[in-house]
Amino acid sequence: MMEKQINIDVDQVLASSIRRKLVQNSPVSAGCCIFRVPNTLRKHNEQLFEPTFISIGPYHRDIQKFQFTEKIKLWYLDCLIARAPTPETSLECFIKSIRANVKSCLECYGEEVLKLTNDEFVEIMVIDGCFIIEFFRRNANIVPKSMDDPLFKMPWVRKVLVTDFLLLENQLPWFVLECLFNLTETSHDEERRPLSQLAYDYFHWNAFKTEMIEVNQRLQNKHLLDLLRNIILRGSEDPQEKDNAESFFRNLIAYEQCDRSLNDGVIAYAAFLDNLINSSEDLDLVSTPKGNYNLLLEHGGRVCFLQQALQ
């Protein structure tokens, strides 16, 4: 009898232990749109999904190699506050506005950001968000560029910065960018360009090099990568991005494979080209002045990264 009682007690202890570990909510929010790329998708070339120059958002924030660009972010934030384009341009206003939406911000990311305190997370959103909008304004000459700004002074930065801005793991929620943008927008005529247009203008000149378009302001964007996807899938832009083509397409494909709310527009496009093009000779047959598909070729004229990306 005593032995049976002991067994019951042990079972109850184990049951209590398991009960404490139970998770009442899904580890991925329905609103999640900024994902860690799964190992099955990154196995062919992990470097195509990880930033090399600048970390945006919480996923890569603690890596030592980004200390230089972390200082640039803080310098940009200081310049923005010192310029004070609006009465709302203050750290207190930025923090208050982001903190009011912190739950929605957290839901955009995977479970691991829950390891951060709310203050740590809000700090990342404010510093990185202000950096991005200040950078786009400098790029558009709305804000004068400093002669000692390394992001515009050193030509090699252009390629790596464009690549890092369009990584799935390196995104900020669009509403964070828009919130900070609106808090710091002036009434000057030359600055009355929407955030989506400023962002597109930057990628247009530094990546796509095609005819300039006016961005449809009715697009519902989730982040910068989603903005470019929306523009491409609506036929507003031919995907002629060359320098960073493989990284760009792989991250778009990973995004569609992680977010079930999206259709498979980019995946379908990639699958179509994968079936159509098997050699440089095939490429010559389908290339047109408007649609330059050379971005899909690897060394030796082999179209293979699409096959890997779709596996």
From TrEMBL:
It comes from the Eukaryota. InterPro entries: DUF247_pln. PANTHER family: BNAC04G53230D PROTEIN, PTHR31170:SF17. This is Uncharacterized protein.
